[in-house]
């Protein structure tokens, strides 16, 4: 069953809206098997959620996306988990990762303005006792997100003209 699970996950990762009956046909198995495997993987938290990738620029919605590197002092017995949990509970935070390098956590967030993101860092992140430093990077343009090329330009179709 491990092979079928991997195949299901590969398809769902690139197209979470695929009809499970269609997926069963693509995998050469029956729909019941696919439905049961998906349900089991959701229960086991292998499948953690389903997301729609939106190009907010094209939708006419102005958002500021930022990557914030956070250096922290880990807590005895809790490591980085408690601090990461405190940070990811903020609704404007879209992701928190434990990373290697000069910083410990990478926080991604969305805000309405540059000032709003800066206020979040100064008013919410910096006051956390274990936070000893931050560096904020603003995303100016997304070229590829979650494996999808964003804002692809259509190639011109030229008609061959011969004399």
From TrEMBL:
Any Pfam family matching the protein: AsnC_trans_reg
Top-level taxon of the source organism: Bacteria
InterPro entries with a match to the protein in the record: Dimeric_a/b-barrel (IPR011008), Tscrpt_reg_AsnC-like (IPR019888), Tscrpt_reg_AsnC/Lrp_C (IPR019887), WH-like_DNA-bd_sf (IPR036388), WH_DNA-bd_sf (IPR036390)
Domain Transcription regulator AsnC/Lrp ligand binding residue range list: 68-141
SUPFAM superfamilies: Dimeric alpha+beta barrel (SSF54909), Winged helix' DNA-binding domain (SSF46785)
This protein's name: Lrp/AsnC family transcriptional regulator
Lineage: Bacteria, Bacillati, Bacillota, Clostridia, Lachnospirales
């Amino acid at each position: 069953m491990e092979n079928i699970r991997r195949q299901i996950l590969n398809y769902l990762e690139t197209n979470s809206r695929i009809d499970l009956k269609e997926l069963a046909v693509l995998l050469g198995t029956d729909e019941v098997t696919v439905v049961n495997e998906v349900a089991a993987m959701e229960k086991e938290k292998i499948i953690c959620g389903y997301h729609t990738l939106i190009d907010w620029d094209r939708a006419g919605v102005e958002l500021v996306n930022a990557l914030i590197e956070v250096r922290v002092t880990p807590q005895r017995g809790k490591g980085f988990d408690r601090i990461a949990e405190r940070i990811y509970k903020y609704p404007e935070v879209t992701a928190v990762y434990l990373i290697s390098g000069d910083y410990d956590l990478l926080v991604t967030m969305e805000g309405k303005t540059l000032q709003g993101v800066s206020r979040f860092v100064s008013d919410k992140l910096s006051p956390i006792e274990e936070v000893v430093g931050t560096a904020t990077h603003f995303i100016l343009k997304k070229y590829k997100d979650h494996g999808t090329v964003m804002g692809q330009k259509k190639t011109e179709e030229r008609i061959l003209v011969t004399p």
